[in-house]
Amino acid sequence: MKSRQVSVLLHVFEALLKDASQAYPELKESFLKDYERIALYSQIRGLTVFTLDLPNLDSLLLRGLDTGRLCLEGPLCHAVSKGTRVPRLFSGLWLRVFEKDSSLKLDSDVTAVALLRQLTCLGKSLRVECSQDRVLATLENFHDVEGTLREPTLQWDLDSLDLCGKLHISLADCVGLPFAHRMPISGQLSIYTGLTDGHTSVRDRDLLQQCQRVADIVVESLGYFDPLSFSAKLEKYGLGIGFKHGPGAVADRLKNHEKSRFPNWPHKLQQTFPFGDCAFMPNDPRDLPINHELASRLICVPKSAKAPRLIAAEPVQHQWCQQLTWRWLESRLKSLFKGSFVNFRRQDLSAEMVAEASLNRKLATVDLSDASDRLSCWTVERIFRRNYSVLRALHAARTRYLRSDESLPGSSFFIKLKKFASQGTATTFPVQTIVFLVIAIASAIGDDEVTMESIMKLRNHVRVYGDDIILPSHGYARLLRIMDLLQLKVNVAKSYRDGYFRESCGSNAYRGYDVTPVKAKEIVADGPTSCQAVIDTSNNLFCKGYWHASQYLISTLPPRIQRGLRIVGRNEVGYSGLVSFSGSDESHLVKRWNSRLHRYEGRIWRISPKPQFETRAEFVSLLDFLSRPHNPSIARTVSVYGRARKITSDLLWEPLNMGAHGNISLPSDRVVHVSSTFQGRRIRRGRRKTRLSLRSTA
User: How confident is the model at residue 132, as a pLDDT?
Assistant: First the structure.
């Protein structure tokens, strides 16, 4: 499998260099030598060249764009010569961005930057299994981070979270701790002095107190959280009951159709989310669940070749209540800020700010390392101290213990968590978004008075999506210091303030131009989902102008799939296929007239989930029914449950786009080669088979 991936990546790489040759014809010979080097490296290093070595060059490029000087270190960084301090690989492009002494050019070529990023990031996000050593290193880092977190002040390990007499807790409490217990993160920028010999500066206390004031105003403005009344409100408007199951695995190891049985319901959850009101249907003859809390299960899922992703499979009853809490936090933030600062559904809003910031440099972009693992209960209890209803719900739905999955290497473990929650918990994303938003606003306000009016003045300058933060550049240093004091770690290698490059929420911009590379998730079309992933990657490359690379990826698809792909306009909605800048075209498809539906149809390839239904007459099926939003236009049966969804693909008869059944020429900008003969279906009443043939070249 890996050898096939290497072969496909090499051919795509060769096609990318052809696209680069069209932009820079004078570098054609240099690109041929670059391809020979990559081909040689791939024979020695295999897939690692594309997943680890080339992405290292991208990291050096981005750091050079931000600092103004290229520092050569790591693999594939051999300099051209002593007098030319740029990498030998793609030297023609490097010299259009940096001077020979490795300093950034004042008129650096944006096209060269985009090409360098695409060549180095092609296989960066490829879904491959990590080596055993990297998995063990990730687990070791997980334990190291957990061991350094502060112990919470409130009793998070008990069934009840009592705030009586403890409202005085504040983020500034860490200033009074001995230096050895504050554990500053190494490698971070420390602009404020006075952290020597166990003493802290007054400036640090002022920063944290300012952050606490922002937290109190924002969190208190969220209002009172009553799970039952909020659930009833959602149901009234046909939006479901708010409670729902997540799509992934659970610690109980239950299948999807078994989740609503709820074999356990701990007392800690019962106090805030009563089982009889939240997960029990009237007249249900089943026995009540037992008072038992399962530990969440730590599992490893593929992320990239550099490191895997560790997530926690939550107990099904906790996940059920966490989803309602997330829904409430989302609705309250939307109502409070009117779409400013935070929007859980739209990352494109951050992309717009990134493009503008790369021109005027007024905004900085910040990325965090191990964001969820470093967010402690100590920090969360202080951020939400003024809203006990939210804090109580977060405590009730939180899992206190974590155990390792049997599939993880090394010895098994069972620990009591000091972090608020791991990835995989439904409340992790909204809670960390609120925490980081508070820190960003406090950093941007500086020493000014904190009021809701002063906070709202920053609505066009601060935006947070998970651990991706955008804030004014003047608040960058303060944010680094606050993060350091709260044991949160800023990834300075992926945070940008000084240069003209900005990155946030997957959008990259340099001097106002989009330089986001296409990162392939799947490169080999060996199944329905992988075929669709290859088509999506091809379309992304095509829209970026890498037409040779896009066409090669399409050529790797089976011929029957190529014949069934419609060509759609770039801005058309509701259709899938190959993207074109010249509108849609379906003249090459096998067509028919559907006399029953009175419409033209084409033989089109697409993937679709195939649910496997089973009939249940239990009360849990009614609970599943109520948890889904109500759509009056779709008839549903309460007792029928889609147990599993199997992704299938086939050539299906679908309605054609308007005018597609006429004699329309193929858009010349979309390079499509259909060399095989189209076989039409046999027409009834003895008509002969129709045969269509089409070959189009750019």
Answer: 86
